[in-house]
Amino acid sequence: MTIAEVSKQTGLSPDTLRYYERIGLIPPVPRNHSGVRDYDQASLEWVEMMKCMRRAGVQIEALITYVSLFAQGEDTVQARKQILLEQREQLMERQKDLAASLALLNSKIEHYDQLIRPVERRLEEQLQKGTEEKVV
User: Fold this and answer.
1) Which of 20, 36, 38, 127 is a plausible cystine mate for 25, CB 3.0–4.6 Å?
2) Rounded Cα gap, residues 92 and 35, in angstroms
3) Residue 94 and residue 14: Cα distance in Å, rounded?
4) pLDDT tens digit string along 5-46?
5) Cβ-proximal residues to 40 (8 Å cutoff; 6+ apart), any chain
């Protein structure tokens, strides 16, 4: 699969895909006989995983280390798991922070709704009163 096809499928720009490969965020992508990137299924899975991890806010440095350890083989399984556990913990903390922020926003919105309701009622009453006067 070409970089343009992968870009279209994943929503990541070709520049981003090249960048991910250059910094080691994904393993080197196979190349065809002309030296052009030819993404295979494994490459696509790495791209999707990194896209998901980045969207979740996982640190680039941790992901680069993870990919590097993966390339070193089975002896690094425990170290890779530890990276994922640490990132999960950080993500869970962020999730708590986001939940608190959302609760605050909801509270503020409800406050403004309460301020707006009396004004809307007065406007409705005036509108109804004006309509009744015209009918008479």
Assistant:
1) 20
2) 42
3) 30
4) 999 999 999 999 999 999 999 999 999 999 999 999 999 999
5) 1, 30
Q: Are 76 and 82 in contact (CB under 8 A)?
A: no
What residues does 102 pair with on adjacent strands? none
The pair of structure tokens assigned to 76 is: 């690094």
Is 37 in a helix, a strand, or coil? strand
The tokens for 21 are 């490969």
Give the model confidence (pLDDT) of 99-128 as tens digits: 999 999 999 999 999 999 988 988 988 888
Task: Look at residue 95 and tell me whether its pLDDT is greater than 90.
Answer: yes
Helix/strand/coil (H/E/C) assignment for every residue in 1-41: CCHHHHHHHHCCCHHHHHHHHHCCCCCCCCECCCCCECCCH
Contact between residue 6 and residue 39 where contact means Cβ atoms under 8 Å apart: yes
Picking from 94, 97, 21, 93, the residue whose alpha carbon sits closest to that of residue 63 is 21
3-class secondary-structure state, position 11: coil
